[in-house]
């Protein structure tokens, strides 16, 4: 499980600036997906080999009873409850404010590990910028400049170390050979996740829950269908240790992100009896960002007229057009219809995500694509693609080598992607094309 870091503090202390710095490398990846609404408050970062999740919270007014400040306070509570480590950001230029003290009281009650971070400290001396903040009783402050990057690497490394020591020991590594494809079932509340889990797993679920090792935040529930093994990653209904806050919302972005990143294949559940919502699009965006294989399950297909069914399909095509690579299955979790087809799509997506594509086959497919349609000239030079090799799996990355490849246009890249997809039957997985010029 990835460590979860929450950024808390007054407005304008530099939380978003720090958030952007911590998640920077991911941003570039998502920026070029058209039509994708992103939730700017959750991000993934990476420190060397160590991935983590970071939650930015809005300005925090713990005592607000209603309105936007109240909403933000609720979000902050949820973020703190779900975090392993809280970074409490204060402003080194403005100094200590009464508001900072209120936040300190709130954080102390939360029982979470808190790191006090003095931001905007570029060009200032440690002793002078930190002196007044000792009054908060939060220990030695970390001094950073989010804008310039000073101190940020050390801070994040320490936060990850803290998170790791706080977590209960993880169980032995999961062996996919024994338990089949790992499936994360995600979707907004009431789409029918629990119903589908019950339909899939039946009473085997009970046995799984009695097994030792339920200290983890997600439980892996093995089941068998049509002679094949699968494992569901079940984060529903599992409480985090040390229940500091009773009322965590039923839908948890953190749990959704964690289960997506543990899965081989994600099943995104949509509710055919409701319109596609912003929340559906957000969840879809998260899945896309991780590059996981995906199947879309449109649930509650029972009891709809054929007109209504056409409407649902149109709605999905329009609002989730960026999921075009995924198979869509229409199911009823309640009646149990469409389930074998759904699992078949899971198998297909897994096979595609982990496909091994040899250099000769890829290069042949590349040559075919070029023969059908050459890339356009850029100025006086024409991009020259020579060969392709596989640069990674899950999702598959196809690296194309050649010269002057910066002249390859986006539409042509999409054309190549489609050609590779069709040639190698890569259904249900994102596919990344990378261009590498020789000089
Ligand atoms: P948030 O409201 O806490 O998310 O704060 P922002 O990240 O939006 O930053 C508020 C303001 O502080 C912006 O004008 C930032 O450019 C500025 N800021 C953020 N970090 C630093 C820093 O390290 N040094 C200085 N001098 N300004 C900063
Ligand atoms: P979750 O919050 O995603 O776990 O959703 P639940 O499994 O608790 O289901 C929410 C509601 O939708 C319940 O009342 C279910 O009975 C109902 N439901 C789930 N699947 C179906 C379905 O396939 N058809 C219909 N008509 N209702 C369903």
Automatic annotation (TrEMBL):
It comes from the Bacteria. GTP 2 binds at residues 187-194, 234-238, 299-302. Residues 3-167, 181-354 form the EngA-type G domain. It holds the Pfam family MMR_HSR1. InterPro entries: AAA+_ATPase, G_ENGA, GTP-bd, GTPase_Der, KH_dom-like, KH_dom-like_a/b, P-loop_NTPase, Small_GTP-bd. One of its GO terms (biological process) is ribosome biogenesis. Keywords: GTP-binding, Nucleotide-binding, Repeat, Ribosome biogenesis. GTP 1 binds at residues 9-16, 56-60, 119-122. GO terms for molecular function: GTP binding; ribosome binding. The keyword Lipid biosynthesis does not apply. Residues 371-393 are annotated as: Disordered. Residues 378-387 have a biased composition (Basic residues). Associates with the 50S ribosomal subunit. HAMAP family: GTPase_Der. NCBIfam families: GTPase_EngA, small_GTP. Belongs to the TRAFAC class TrmE-Era-EngA-EngB-Septin-like GTPase superfamily. EngA (Der) GTPase family. GTPase that plays an essential role in the late steps of ribosome biogenesis. This is GTPase Der. It comes from Massilia forsythiae. The gene is der.
């Amino acid at each position: 499980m990835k460590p979860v870091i929450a950024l808390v503090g007054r407005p304008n202390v530099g939380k978003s600036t720090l958030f952007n710095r911590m998640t920077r490398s991911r941003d570039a990846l998502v920026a070029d997906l058209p039509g994708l609404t992103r939730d700017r408050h959750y991000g993934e970062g990476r420190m060397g080999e160590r991935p983590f999740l970071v939650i930015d919270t809005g300005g925090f007014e713990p005592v607000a009873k209603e309105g936007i400040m109240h909403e933000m306070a609720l979000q902050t509570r949820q973020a703190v409850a779900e975090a392993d480590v809280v970074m409490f950001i204060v402003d080194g230029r403005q100094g200590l404010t009464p508001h900072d003290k209120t936040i300190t009281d709130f954080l102390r009650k939360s029982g979470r590990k808190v790191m006090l971070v003095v931001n905007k400290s570029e060009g200032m001396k440690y002793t002078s910028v930190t002196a007044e903040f000792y009054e908060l009783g939060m220990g030695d402050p970390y001094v950073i400049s989010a804008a310039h990057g000073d101190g940020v690497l050390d801070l994040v490394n320490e936060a990850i170390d803290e998170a790791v020591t706080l977590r209960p020991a993880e169980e032995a590594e999961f062996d996919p050979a024994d338990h089949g494809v790992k499936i994360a079932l995600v979707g907004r509340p009431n789409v029918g996740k629990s119903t589908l889990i019950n339909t899939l797993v039946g009473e085997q679920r009970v046995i799984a829950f009695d097994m030792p090792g339920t200290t983890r935040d997600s439980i892996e529930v093995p089941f068998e269908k049509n002679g094949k093994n699968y494992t569901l990653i079940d984060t529903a209904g599992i409480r985090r240790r040390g229940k500091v806050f009773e009322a965590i919302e039923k839908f948890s972005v953190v749990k959704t992100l964690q289960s997506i990143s543990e899965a081989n294949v994600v099943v995104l559940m949509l509710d055919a009896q409701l319109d596609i919502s912003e929340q559906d699009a957000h969840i879809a965006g998260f899945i896309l960002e991780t590059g996981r294989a995906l199947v879309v399950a449109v649930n509650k297909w029972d009891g709809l007229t054929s007109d209504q069914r056409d409407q649902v399909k149109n709605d999905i095509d329009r609002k989730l057009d960026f999921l075009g690579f995924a198979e869509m299955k229409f199911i009823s979790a309640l009646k149990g219809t469409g389930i074998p087809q759904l699992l078949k799509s899971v198998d297909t997506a897994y096979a595609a995500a982990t496909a091994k594509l040899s250099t000769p086959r890829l290069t042949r497919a590349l040559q075919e694509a070029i023969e059908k349609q050459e890339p356009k000239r850029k100025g006086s030079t024409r991009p020259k693609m020579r060969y392709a090799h596989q640069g990674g799996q899950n999702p598959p990355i196809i690296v194309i080598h050649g010269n002057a490849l910066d002249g390859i246009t986006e539409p042509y890249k999409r054309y190549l992607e489609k050609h590779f997809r069709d040639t190698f039957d890569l259904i249900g997985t994102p596919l990344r094309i990378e261009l590498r010029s020789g000089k």
